[in-house]
């Protein structure tokens, strides 16, 4: 029989709280209004940098957003 101490009870409560916060953060992210202003941008291969590093380098082109802002908070 395992006896639960206040120390283990506190750890379980913190773990449960963290899990709930992570779930809520994901929900808030997926339902954020930012998706009204932004679109998914393509990845673009950087051939010179890829050759220099001898690896594939892809750039995420956020400058191609229709709001013309690197930070979406600038769109509002």
From TrEMBL:
Similarity-based family: Belongs to the serine/threonine dehydratase family.
Q: Region Disordered: list its residue ranges.
A: 1-20
Cofactor(s) of this protein: pyridoxal 5'-phosphate
Instruction: Report what the protein is called.
Output: Pyridoxal-phosphate dependent enzyme
Q: Which Gene3D superfamilies match?
A: 3.40.50.1100
Give one GO molecular function term: L-serine ammonia-lyase activity
Q: Is Chaperone one of the keywords UniProt gives this record?
A: no
Q: Which GO terms describe its biological process?
A: isoleucine biosynthetic process; L-serine catabolic process; L-threonine catabolic process
Q: Tell me the lineage of the source organism.
A: Bacteria, Pseudomonadati, Pseudomonadota, Betaproteobacteria, Burkholderiales
Species source reads Paraburkholderia eburnea
What keywords does the record list, in alphabetical order?
Answer: Lyase, Pyridoxal phosphate
Checking InterPro entries in the record gives: Ser/Thr_Dehydratase, Ser/Thr_deHydtase_PyrdxlP-BS, TrpB-like_PALP_sf
- SUPFAM superfamilies assigned: Tryptophan synthase beta subunit-like PLP-dependent enzymes (SSF53686)
């Amino acid at each position: 029989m395992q006896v639960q101490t206040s120390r283990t009870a506190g750890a379980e409560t913190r773990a449960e709280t963290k899990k709930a916060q992570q779930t809520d953060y994901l929900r808030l992210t997926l339902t954020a209004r930012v998706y009204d202003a932004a679109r998914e941008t393509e990845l673009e291969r950087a051939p010179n940098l890829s050759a220099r590093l001898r690896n594939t380098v892809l750039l995420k082109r956020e400058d191609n957003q229709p709001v013309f802002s690197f930070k979406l908070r600038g769109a509002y």
